[in-house]
Specification:
Blueprint lengths: L1 E6 L8 E5 L3 E4 L4 E2 L3 E2 L9 E3 L5 H4 L13 E3 L1 H20 L8 H9 L1 E3 L6 E3 L2 E7 L7 E7 L7 E4 L21 E5 L10 H17 L4 E4 L5 H11 L6 E3 L3 H9 L8 H10 L1 E2 L3 H9 L3 E4 L9 H5 L7 E4 L8 H8 L1 E4 L2 E4 L4 E3 L8 H11 L3 E5 L3 H13 L3 E3 L6 E3 L2
Parallel strand pairs: 3-6, 6-7, 7-8, 12-13, 13-22, 14-17, 14-18, 15-16, 15-17, 18-21, 22-23
Antiparallel strand pairs: 1-2, 1-24, 2-3, 4-5, 9-10, 10-11, 11-12, 19-20
Helix pairs in contact: 2-6, 5-7
Bound molecules: zinc ion (ZN) (2 copies).
One zinc ion binds next to loops.
Length: 417
Amino acid sequence: MIFKFFGGAQEVGRSAILLKDEKSIMMDFGIKIDNENKYPIEIPKIDALVLSHSHLDHSGYVPALYFNQHVPTFGTKPTLDLSGLLLDDAINVMKKKRIKPAYYKKQVNLFKNEFVQMEYHEELNFANFNIKLYDAGHISGSSITSIERKEATKNKRVVYTGDFKLSPQTLHKGAEIVKSDVLITESTYESKEHPDREELIKKFIKDINETLESGGTALLPAFAVGRSQELISIIYENNLAENLFIDGMSKAATKIVLSNQRFIRNSDILSNAMQEATWIEDINTRKEATNGPNIILTTAGMLNGGPVLNYIKRLNSKSKIFITGYQVEGTNGYTLINNSYIISDNRKTKITTPFEIYDFSAHSGNADLHRYIKESSPEIVICVHGDKENTMHFAEQLKEEGYEAYAPKVGDIIKLD
Ligand SMILES: [Zn+2]
Ligand SMILES: [Zn+2]
C-alpha cells in the first residue's frame, strides 16, 4: 500500500492524499487560498475519490479531476450540496477576478453527477476495500473515513480524520473515535488549546450586548459553511435573534444545512433562529440592518469580498467587528487585525472600528488530538493538515510515545505493507 501526498502536507490547504493498493483512492482534493490559489501538485489518474467535507481546502480542486476521467466521489449528502454551492461560487469569483478558471461549470456538474451519497456507518464495497464514513463533528456532513482491506493483512484499516472536533459544538456532537491500524490525522492546532466553549460564548454575548446598547452595530464576518450556522444558533440561544440580519452566502448554506437535518443536532435551534432572524434580500433590508443597533452576520469570513466589505465602511463609531475564524496571511481579515486596513476595489481603506477575536474553532486542540490517537490506537500515525512546525513536532512527540509516526511534505511517498 502506497500513500502519496499531493497537497496539505506540512501545510494547511489543498488537502489531497492518494492511497494506492489494488485501486487508487484519492482522499480530498482541495485548494490553498494564499495571495493566489495553489492546487495539488498533479492531477493523477484515480479510481475513486472520498470527500471528507465541503470546505474548499478539501473540495476546491475536485472538479479538475473530471477533465479527463469519470470517477465516483463518495461522501455525505451535505458534503455534496455544500461543496456544490462553494464550487459554483468559486467559479463566479474566478470570473470576477479575471483569473484563468481552474475548471468550468461542466466539470462541477460531472462531479455532482458521479457523486455517491453515503450515510454515516453505511458500508460500501469498493475493489478490495470496505469504505465507511463516521461523524467528524466539524461541520454538517463532515466525515472521518475508514478504508479497510477485506483480506486478513497487516495495516488492515486506514482511517483519515479529515478536519475533526472531538468536543461537541451547538450543532454537532463530538467526532466519533474509530479504531485504526494506520491513522492519518489533521494537525492544525497541535500547538494550541482552544478556550472553554461556554466561557467563550458568555464573553462573546456580553460583548455583543454592550455594542448594541451603546448604539453600535455588531458586524460578524463569518464563513458561509459551518461557522455561520454555529453563530446563528448561539445568537438565538441567547435571545438576540430578533436583532440578527443575515447576508451573503450564509443564507444559502444555512438552507442546505437545514434541509439535511439528520446531520446536525439541535436542528430546532437553527430552524427557529432562521424564523426569527431577518434574511437580507434587497437594498431596503440592508438599510434597515445598518440603521439600528443590530447584529449583521455576513460573508466573507476573511473579508476577502462579499457584502461584508460594504458594511464595514458604513459602521458608526460605536460599532465593533467580531472576528470568529482563522485569518490567512494576505487576506483582508489578516491586514485588518495586524495593520488596521483592508483592500477593496483596489483601494486601501483604513479601518478604525475596534475588533475582537473569538476562537470558535471547529478543530480539535492539542489534548483532543492526542486523545483521539490514543483511543483509535493505531500503530502508524501520519500527521497532515498543519504547518511544517506543527506536523513535525506532532510526529516527533508521537514517536516518543512509541508510534511509528510521519510528517510527510508535499510530493512525499510512504510505502507500507
Ligand atoms: Zn474544514
Ligand atoms: Zn481543512
